[in-house]
Fold:
Amino acid sequence: MGALAALPVRCAAVAAALLACAALAGCGGAERPRVPAGFTEYRTGEYSFAYPSGWQRRDGKDEYGRPTLMFTGPRLPSGVVDGQIHVGRVARHRGGLEVQLGQFRALATMHRYRLTADRRVEIDGARRAHRFEAAYEMQDQSGASVPFTLLGLYALTDDGVLLEFMLRSPRHGAARSRLPVIFDSFRLDH
Structure:
């Protein structure tokens, strides 16, 4: 009977220990994930993500004069870039996300992308978010066809900012295995 009487105390102690471990490990999303070895964090007041250390950053503008951000990996012997991150931002986006998604789908069809994923996702701080994955081909400097993989995310924040987060890599490049790490590191800061 003594062992049975002590059981609730042991359960409470185990539960407390598990809760303490969970708090230290950052469970529940309260803490930012660690930046993986070999990666560097890029952070603004709106979003953050990890990218491979050594990739080159370039700021630019889109066709409407809005700021864009690009991180580019090294060139392969074929001349294609082994990995690329593109971030676009539209402040005070007035339209819904459906128009942007329709434009992406139309461009993907026009450029012969094969969509392998096209689904809504949940992201903390986003009113709505949508993920795309695609396979397509580009030509290298010799004219040879190079298969590519694309991971894309559109997020409309609670503040009405539309973010476009696009990653691409040659399917047989070293960066391909890094795309999921980069993609999964994307966070909205709110």
In short: Strands lie at 39-43, 47-52, 56-61, 67-72, 84-90, 114-121, 126-139, 145-157, 162-170, 187-188. The first strand starts at residue 39 and ends at 43. Helices lie at 2-25, 97-110, 179-185. The two ends are 53 Å apart (CA to CA).
